[in-house]
Amino acid sequence: AQSVTQPDIHITVSEGASLELRCNYSYGATPYLFWYVQSPGQGLQLLLKYFSGDTLVQGIKGFEAEFKRSQSSFNLRKPSVHWSDAAEYFCAVGEVEAGNNRKLIWGLGTSLAVNP
Amino acid sequence: DTGVSQNPRHKITKRGQNVTFRCDPISEHNRLYWYRQTLGQGPEFLTYFQNEAQLEKSRLLSDRFSAERPKGSFSTLEIQRTEQGDSAMYLCASSSRWGEGEVEQYFGPGTRLTVT
Lengths: 116, 116
Hints:
- Chain A is 0% helix and 57% strand.
- In chain A, strands 2, 5, 6, 10, 11 and 12 form a six-stranded mixed sheet that branches.
- Chain B has 116 residues and is mainly beta.
- The model of chain B has no long low-confidence stretch (mean pLDDT 91).
- Chains A and B meet through strand 5, strand 6, strand 10 and strand 11 of A and strand 4, strand 5, strand 9 and strand 10 of B.
């Protein structure tokens, strides 16, 4: 069955430090991968997505993610974290059937805290 | 278009009462999804529509839950005889069909249900 694992439930970093959030997936076909961010009281916002092509994808807010098929991973990175990045981060894999987007399978999320 | 909207944003109800939520997707999107998110968890898929047709329902969607999208535009999610375990954030998302240039799902702000 398709699944997404985010091994880190909580991460705390200092402002200005680099960040890497881990995501591993289990999916039988070529995955469609997403990272979303959810701030308190806000809806889910797409940070970036991967479907094919260049395995390093750039997103909004200075985030990037790298798809590694051999490791079944899609880790999210940011070189310098800002206090406003404190939020919940979700990795998701898009379940596709006959070329149609069916649904997203989600990880449990990683809560990011940023120390000043 | 301002994105996906959901009403109400918050709903407090007593156990045993019926509640109905509404979702208005992005106007040109023909796919509409419902997810449920409980505290500390990632979203869980409930059901999705393509136009007015309900194409898939999760086993999480018990007989007390019903969703409709009568004219292929807005959708409603009704929960009958609410239970305390129904307390959660109910998220709506919309997207275009795969291969039409937009593959990600755009989320509304959610409706937070509290069953007392």
